Amino acid sequence: MSKKSAPKGAKKPDSRREYREKELYKMRHSCEHVLTQAMLKLWPKIKMAMGPATEDGFYFDFDPSPAGSGQALKISEADFPRIEAEMAKIVKDNLPIRKKILTLAEGRKLFKDNAYKQEWLDAIKQKKQKPTVYWTGKEFVDLCAGPHVKSTGEIGAFKLLSIAGAYWHGSEKNKMLTRIYGTCFATQKKLEAYILQQQEAEKRDHRKLGKNLDLFVFADIVGKGLPMLTPKGTVIRKELEKFVLEEETKRGYQHVITPHLAKVELYEKSGHYPYYKDIMYPAMQIDEEKLILRPMTCPHHFMLYKSRPRSYKELPVRFAEIASQFRYEKSGELSGLTRVRLFCLADAHIMCAKEQAKDEIKNVLNLIDYANSVFGLKKGINYRYRLSLGDRKDAKKYYKDDEAWNVAENILRQVLKEIKAPFYEAKGEAAFYGPKIDIQMKKVNGQEETAFTVQYDFVMPKRFELAYTDKEGKEKEVVVIHRSSIGCFERTMAFLIEFYAGAFPVWLSPVQVWVIPVSQKHFNYSKKITKSLSDLGIRAEARNEDDTLGKKIRTGELQKIPYLLIVGDRELKAKTVAVRQRKKGDLGAMKLDDFISKIKKEINQKK
Amino acid sequence: MSKKSAPKGAKKPDSRREYREKELYKMRHSCEHVLTQAMLKLWPKIKMAMGPATEDGFYFDFDPSPAGSGQALKISEADFPRIEAEMAKIVKDNLPIRKKILTLAEGRKLFKDNAYKQEWLDAIKQKKQKPTVYWTGKEFVDLCAGPHVKSTGEIGAFKLLSIAGAYWHGSEKNKMLTRIYGTCFATQKKLEAYILQQQEAEKRDHRKLGKNLDLFVFADIVGKGLPMLTPKGTVIRKELEKFVLEEETKRGYQHVITPHLAKVELYEKSGHYPYYKDIMYPAMQIDEEKLILRPMTCPHHFMLYKSRPRSYKELPVRFAEIASQFRYEKSGELSGLTRVRLFCLADAHIMCAKEQAKDEIKNVLNLIDYANSVFGLKKGINYRYRLSLGDRKDAKKYYKDDEAWNVAENILRQVLKEIKAPFYEAKGEAAFYGPKIDIQMKKVNGQEETAFTVQYDFVMPKRFELAYTDKEGKEKEVVVIHRSSIGCFERTMAFLIEFYAGAFPVWLSPVQVWVIPVSQKHFNYSKKITKSLSDLGIRAEARNEDDTLGKKIRTGELQKIPYLLIVGDRELKAKTVAVRQRKKGDLGAMKLDDFISKIKKEINQKK
To answer: Of A196, A314, B544, B602, which residue is the least packed, with the fewest Cβ within 10 Å?
Structure first.
């Protein structure tokens, strides 16, 4: 695509979105400058270090105790109202924000009292660039690449959110600075909606719910980013696995089991090694072999495919595996089940003839849509598609074969159009071996993340000589489709915990039924009921706590148990159970068999 | 136990077995001397290096081209008749075999021409022992610790088996010697039975069947001892997993999922590290953490148990996991699925009150017996029990607490007696943290190996402070029972492949039904039948090869498919299938529904 083509801004809905996002980004960046200006007014001794706009707002890092300034300043969230008032004044004054390009010497002079800015200038010098600064009125100036809004009056509704420590350049070896987080929106209404969403997201935080509902735990002595699933968490995980295995089997996948590690050579052959080595675990020398924990499954599946000759009659060969994979994530980026160092992917690789690729990709998207619908996720609302394209000019990052890229990208684009998928295109987001379709999931905090991908690969078949014999007896190269159905189990679990706010549908609930005796004398009856349910594979527990009935029901509700069966004199006599359904409340007394029919139906329908 | 107590030989049936085995061992060792003597007579230039008796017979390593001897001698299996004839002469001569203790100088002199023997003498010198030699008549002498039979006439029926290369001291750095394998039994009948068994075992070798039936493969670029399960192998594995998970759930186990690695600290805390570090993979430094792939699951389960307080009401807590584990096995010891470097164990740890331990162990043995019976294994025939005891005197190998050892060993002994299990006792076979019951499985080659274990552990609860609150609110220590139900999946699969000779029962068969059309025009009908079966979860394939019907049936039989359904004109017209059952042959025509009922019943009953 030529550099001279029209700016994408005004063309398509997605470009309008991009435009809006760009404007918001400018506003937030300017708001961060206003924050800095206000801070310097209130505490002239602090030294500003850095401050960017982010996807959610902005932050500002400063040094509260620069060398020679005496005791560190104590600034806390209690100071936010003062700071916000000071910021409001600057916004009200509608000061112009103006860019200026300096010489390096001018920059050095302007920030002569700020060691942090001098370091930025060193970096600018090394890149042989010229420093740019932004002036807010005549009072405040910061070294900044921009862009910004034209004047402070253009800044919408803002709010400071929190304060925390942060190392200079994110490294423990440097000084600990102070960071203030804030956000900014075009209107007060949007700001309030965002804050409400964040409060809701906090309540649904899977780390918090995971602890309250006893789903997973960590231990220092085990290691960072290595969660252990409790019995309850394991029930959810195993139900998800079962669902995936059954659905894949129905759709013609063959399951395989391959080792969690291999010789480094395997990743050199596949070409992954240079791209992945920084996020791989260190290699282990065993006798003459250099083994490494795998960061992906594809090369193993290719070796299995190659283990015997393949005929066109067998194609497509669809190898699926619930595969453990290991990636080194920085400790600062680890978070609950969302970012871990060992994860398990519902992975698969489809080896097919070129002319089968389109249908196979459609089938994969159909499987993903189906799985999402089972979870209650709606296309266009909870998720959308991203067509991730390569960059023909970046030969270092992308395998060089323009023709193959064109073919592959067109197939993916066509599929998305044919299935009428809501999608947008993103350049430079492809895998090194081909373009992909990313399923972008909206989290409860409003952020979007790639949940699953479908990749079209024309590189690996060459590297591994993945071939088949066609009808005429000729050897032909396959196309490989890399895909996940429900993604990485850890991250999907984290997502679902938050999506359901811990109130899992019955089929996924670790405990589906509590049987609660009204008093101690009904405990035996409750145990009998529990056994009848357990024998049918329904996950039931007889509760025998020394609490009031009301307390027991409340605990059950807090634990988000789908069904509470209360049994007392009346139920014992009538051989019934009094049913309380989560969210719906009291359903009255039922014959046990009727309740069993009801819950079994819901479980089978994955409700 | 005092050193002066009567020799165990004459006491119990199992001791009689030990006695017999000892006699056989002596005979085999003497037979190896006879082999050496015969070889030296035929080829005086060779140098004898070493030769022990083994569980199956004996072998003899020699140097066919000692330095300065000129060209290497060519000795092959074609020479076996000559060697055996020479050996027979020595046996017939009934030469006396006599032990003599030498001084080191006498030894040096006696073997002055043999560098290998001089090396043995160096080792003897270092241990400050005196060399012993055994004379066979007056012609032959070897450096040997014995014991031997009294004269060559006591040697029973023998046979040389094979010839191979072997490094001196098993190290690639040393010279390659030649090894001759042979065996020897008390009677010709026993020898013949052994040879027949070995031939049968060879046919059933899981490595051979694994290849023929396409169950698993290896690849050099993946790594040694790291099998990849094909779709067919994976079906068997997943069926086994499902069986274990369901059976354990029924029996009150809770499943958990813990990471395949942890910080080295975890294994230092458990005390495993010094015992296991040589068979563990190298540690990996990640930031400030030293991570290592786990060689066992227990410490992870203990950390999960400790993740919250536990009450007596919850006990026993039974954590089960299908757990990946990593152990460094020497490359020379790797073999198919039997010895691998990454395996998956049907593992569990039961945390219970001391007074619950006995019942829990009984329950575990019951589960193991049940699983074995499902596989068709018979107690006392296919497997027996070994009570593996500690050694009070070996404080380095066994945790020092005589009282605790006594209690634990008595509990295990009592359980075995109460369930009337066929068992024998073995000192020094315990885990370092407590005694165990080993389930000793007889393989098709006649060798016995430990398939599963149940361990009583009183050490880990102390090291990890594994406690619960009792009825009175007091904190008490639990007892841990380590157990496996069906052992390591890889090894169990290898065992079952050999046990069934590849003809898996229907529930385990990767493909349960082949639908074979008589001719091309019946292919559509066969596909319809196949779909009806697949929709019900029956693993069926429609065969469409260009072969004669007879050839197709033979292929199906070679692939050990449990049911072949033949469909031709007659079946198409009558809406039936002609059923051929593996081993039973033609069952005649059946309505499809009747066949479905039959096979579903067999699958459900795990037949």
So the answer is: A196
Kindly report, residue by residue over B264-276, the tens digit of the pLDDT: 999 999 999 988 9
Please state, in angstroms and rounded to a whole number, the distance separating the CA atoms of residues B363 and B293.
Answer: 31
For tokens 């007074």, name the residue: B355
Query: For residue A241, what pLDDT is reported?
Result: 97
Q: Is A173 on the interface with B (CB under 8 A)?
A: no
| Per-residue tokens: A251 | 């759709």
Q: Select the residue of B217, B254, B286 nearest A231 (Cβ to Cβ).
A: B254
Contact A304 B341 (CB under 8 A): no
Q: Which of B233, B245, B284 sits opposite A281 (nearest CB)?
A: B284
On chain A, the residues whose CB falls within 8 A of the CB of B304 are 217, 228, 230
What whole-number distance in Å separates Cα of residue B487 and Cα of residue A232?
A: 24
| B:253-292 residues touching chain A, CB 8 A cutoff | 254-263, 265-266, 269, 281-282, 284-287, 289, 291
CATH architecture for residues B15-203:
2-Layer Sandwich (3.30)
Give contacts of A 546-585 with B, CB under 8 A: none
CB B303 to CB A219 under 8 A? Answer: yes
Of B295, B353, B347, the residue nearest B323 (C-alpha): B347
B186 has a chain A CB within 8 A of its CB: no
For an interface test with B, give the residue of A211, A240, A256 to mutate (most B CBs within 10 A).
Answer: A256
Written as six digits, the tokens of A232 are 């309850």
Structure tokens at B246: 């369901």
Distance from C-alpha of A361 to C-alpha of A354, rounded to nearest angstrom: 11
Q: In the block, which residue shows the tokens 């990946």? A: B324
Amino acid (1-letter code) at residue B419: I
- Contact with chain A for residue B227, Cβ under 8 A: yes
Q: How far apart are CA A528 and CA A518, in angstroms?
A: 15
pTM of the model: 0.86
A513-605 to CATH, choices 3.40.50.800, 3.30.70.360, 3.90.550.10, 3.30.930.10? 3.40.50.800
Q: Which helix (H) or strand (E) holds B587?
A: strand B585-591
At the fourth CATH level, which superfamily is domain A238-256+295-500? Bira Bifunctional Protein; Domain 2 (3.30.930.10)
pLDDT above 90: residue A6: no
ipTM of the complex: 0.86
φ/ψ (deg, to 5) at B389: -100, 160
Q: What is the pLDDT of residues A301-359, one digit of tens each?
A: 999 999 999 999 999 999 999 999 999 998 888 899 999 999 999 999 999 999 999 99
Q: Which of A60, A55, A53, A50 shows the shortest CA–CA distance to A26? A: A53
Residue with tokens 């942060």: A166
Say what the pLDDT of residue A255 is.
98
